[in-house]
Amino acid sequence: MHLLRLFVVLLALLPALAAAQTPIPPTADDLRSRVAALGDRKLSEADQRAAQQTLEQALASLTLAEELRAQQQRLQQDIESAPQRTREARAELASLQARADSAPAIGPSTPDAELERRLADQNAALIEWRRRLDEANTLLVNARTGPERAQTEISASQARMATIETALGTNREPGRDGRPLSAERRDALAAEWHVLDAQVALRRKELEGNSALLDLGQARQDLATQEVARLEARVQALQTTINQRRSAEAAQTVQALTGDGSSATAIGSLLARETATNQQLSEDLLGVVSENGK
After folding, report:
1. Which of 113, 121, 194, 289 registers the highest number of CB atoms within 10 A of its CB?
2. Is residue 2 part of a domain?
């Protein structure tokens, strides 16, 4: 009698034990071979199309699972290097704050071309540091909102994994109809289970490294904010100087054109320069017209 009771208990536990087993995913090569061989099975058009879609879904799941595992490896590397990168950003910020702005002086003898070159360089640097600031802000937002989102996604994924395990253990579709699973459907569910498993592992890794990434994001934001402010000041100073010079040159031009006879030499020089410039522009324009007419 005791053995009979034990046998009945084991029979009752079999579905649960089967459901608890880790599904074995199909291989990509096997799935591709089966897609190619669907025509040999003499299925109806609808059944063949459904089988092909299910196998392709399984293939897509295998690819996604690999991508998620690769993301986890990259995240692991980021987490391991985060403390060092945080120290470097903080040290760079401290050095920046400790020294005075070392921008080259802008003197009356500094050529206009040199000022334009400096302005272009500083603008390029400003664009780069604004990009870094955007990245730091994104890292901070993700680190601050990530834990709650990760916990929610982990719970949902685990619930779906349990449903898939039950379906594979009973060989029945989840839901009310409980239809038997086809071979293609079993493979699709097994592949989906491994996507969810990889997703859960990735989210857990994010939770594990959240503190380190939060510190890194804050350090990088502080550094980028300081650099952006410094570069904006430099750009503003250069632009102001360039604008002042242009205004002064314009004023001199107006004075030369409206002055008395003593300004004849200046006016003649100015007109000669403008004439030469216009002549060059006319030649360039004629060259463009001639080239387009060929």
Report:
1. 194
2. no
